[in-house]
Write a structure and sequence with these properties.
Bound molecules: pyridoxal-5'-phosphate
Helix content: 40-55%
CATH topology of the largest domain: Aspartate Aminotransferase, domain 2
CATH class of the largest domain: Alpha Beta
Number of strands: 14
Largest sheet: 7 strands, mixed
Distance between the termini: 48 Å
Mean pLDDT: 96
Radius of gyration: 22 Å
Strand order of the largest sheet: 4-10-9-8-7-5-6
Structural class: alpha/beta
CATH superfamily of the largest domain: Type I PLP-dependent aspartate aminotransferase-like (Major domain)
CATH architecture of the largest domain: 3-Layer(aba) Sandwich
Strand content: 15-25%
Oligomer: single chain
Shape: globular
Length: 412
């Protein structure tokens, strides 16, 4: 391997890989925070490198990944249907439980139709690519998730990107666009790094004014915010005004897969034309059964969403009170801005030593100099967990000079 590295020429397509040293350099410094294997987990407490730490970086918002009822549902489905579907929904890979889930999700979300995909990523990539064609224009928020960005890149449509949540710039782009082109505005409903909500009321207004369709990626919103967990449009009572809403099962629904809801003809068009749907195997039976059970629990145990909101409000207030910059989070995703990338890795390591796991997020996922620890919370976190997380942040924040003892950010 070393020989290949030294002899790699620029024209060798692998040269970029042989010359990729960044990860090894950070590993050698003992600061590498990625791909850490969990050796055990009960959802809130995980074991990493033999050490038990509080998980403050999971998307398991409702705390259902280790719930005995979701586990039992998955086990029963394994026994009934086997381990996989070995084919796409289009051909041999549709189970009666896929249809049941589509029906229940459409009803839950208050839309006519629903189509499942095998991941949340595929849902957005595969739907955007299919619905936006050669003469169309996609208007996309600059902070949208990578799967939306890839969806715009593989579509034949023109893409116009606007600054994060900048409705003034979006208006200007819509004004400049060909009035005869098909138009769709695509945005995260809750942004995955900042935890901020999209400005759904203004988006609905602009979409109406300029004859555009509106698509919300509610991966971090369905089962998290809105009436009964119905997502970001529901926060504003605007579900009926939004054309397409996608969600994922890898977060609140404690499984893997994704869905898109909307008017029936649009959903049926995507079902029959999306490569990500047609040419990829369907969700395995245990995953479907888990989501069906999670959806039932979400609707029965309303305390979970209430607790999640209470925790998010508490942690935002307390972290701010300590002096941390948490941007304008409006959800259980609360970023803690550290600054330069290496400082963020050092902070991550000390936080881990203090018994807390959070996710280190560095450029290009965030702007340069704004590397952060993305914390996120679950309904199953106890008050003790939360106070331990806060104490760890306080201690490490003071040690690294990110905050001072008066509750101020060192950057102020
Ligand atoms: C906003 C957003 N959309 C889509 C996805 C993709 O979902 P999945 O991980 O279920 O494929 C994610 C995942 O992190 C996300 O944050």
């Amino acid at each position: 391997m070393a020989d290949q590295k030294s002899s790699a020429t620029k024209s060798d397509i692998f040269s970029k890989a042989f010359n990729f040293t960044k990860a090894d350099e950070v590993k050698e410094m003992g600061l590498y925070p990625y791909f850490k294997p969990l050796e055990a987990t009960d959802g809130t407490i995980v074991e990493i490198e033999g050490k038990k730490v509080i998980m403050a970086g999971s998307n398991n918002y409702l705390g259902l990944t280790n719930d005995p009822r979701t586990i039992k549902a998955a086990q029963d489905a394994l026994t009934k249907y086997g381990t996989g579907c070995t084919g796409s929904r289009y051909l041999n890979g549709t189970l009666d439980s896929h249809l049941e889930l589509e029906e229940k999700l459409a009803e839950f979300m208050g839309k006519e139709g629903c189509v499942l995909f095998s991941t949340g990523y595929q849902t957005n990539e595969g739907s955007i690519q299919t619905i936006a064609g050669r003469n169309d224009i996609i208007f996309s928020d600059k902070d949208n998730h990578a799967c939306i960005v890839v969806g715009t890149l593989v579509s034949n449509a023109k893409t116009m990107r606007y600054q994060h949540n900048d409705m003034g710039q979006l208006r200007k782009l819509l004004e400049r666009a060909d009035p005869d082109a098909g138009k769709i505005i695509v945005t995260d409903g809750v942004f995955s790094m900042s935890g901020t909500l999209a400005n759904v009321p203004e988006l609905v207004k602009l979409a109406k004014e300029f004859n555009a369709r509106l698509y919300l990626d509610d991966a971090h919103a369905v089962g998290v915010v809105g009436e009964g967990g119905r997502g970001s449009a529901s926060v504003f009572g605007l579900t009926d005004e939004v054309d397409l809403i996608s969600g994922t099962f890898s977060k609140s629904f404690a499984s893997l897969g994704g869905f898109l809801v909307g008017d029936k003809p649009v959903i049926e068009y995507i079902r029959h034309n999306s490569p990500a749907h047609i040419f990829s195997a369907s969700m395995p039976p245990a995953n479907v059964a888990t989501v069906l059970k999670a959806l039932e629990i979400l609707q029965e145990e309303t305390w979970r969403l209430e607790r999640l909101e209470e925790i998010a409000n508490y942690m935002r207030k307390e972290l701010r009170g300590l002096g941390f910059n948490v941007w304008s989070s409006q959800s259980p995703i609360i970023p803690v801005v550290i600054g330069e990338m290496m400082d963020c890795f050092k902070f991550w390591k000390d936080l881990f030593e203090e018994g807390v796991y959070a996710n280190a997020v560095v450029p290009p996922a965030v702007p340069k100099g704004q590397s952060l620890l993305r914390t996120s919370y679950m309904a199953s976190h106890t008050d003790e967990h939360l106070d331990q997380i806060l104490e760890a942040f306080r201690k490490v924040g003071l040690k690294h000079g990110v905050i001072d003892r008066n509750g101020h950010s060192a950057a102020e």
